[in-house]
Amino acid sequence: MEKQRSRSIYQLCMMALMAGVMCFLSPIAIPIGAVPISLSFLAIYLSVYILGMKMGTVSCMVYLLLGFAGLPVFSGYTGGVAKLAGPTGGYLVGYIFLALICGWIMEKSSYQLPWCFVGMAAGSAAAYAFGTVWFMIVMDCSLVAALSQCVIPFLFGDFLKMAAASVIGPQVRRRLKLAGLLDGHC
Length: 186
What we know:
The chain is mainly α and about 190 residues long. Helix content is about 75%, strand content about 0%. It has helices at about 1-25, 40-50, 55-70, 80-85, 90-110, 115-140, 145-150, 155-180, and strands at about 30, 35-40. A two-stranded antiparallel ribbon has the order 1-2. A hairpin with a 6-residue loop joins strand 1 (about 30) and strand 2 (about 35-40).
């Protein structure tokens, strides 16, 4: 019983830590238009790479709840429910799909590098799809206009974030396993 409780506390701490990483990295942004370049995707890639689908997604949801509660953890040090209702709100909600899809593919492939890249790309595509539709509705614009503002300018940067997560994620995961801090259930 004590071992199970200790494990639960450890898992809560790891999820909180990764939510904290998201809160630290995500506000760092370069405004280039309606949707800024931020490090949010990198933080989510790392979270699911290190914690797996379930705990990584919970970390992402904690991050989003903190932002929706008003803490300045979204891009450009913003927060609040108004951010959800705005043009970038769909991308924020899309983070959940990113974490779920990316984490699922990573886990199913036993974290094999090519499949991790596929997982990150598929999760990113889902987040982009959800966010782009939301952007089109809120901004009353065409698909071409939304893609040119909200997707195309970010593809190369997101590829670089995937590459960084593919280098950092396995290293952190391996070191946590060696330290006995990560088992098959994380």
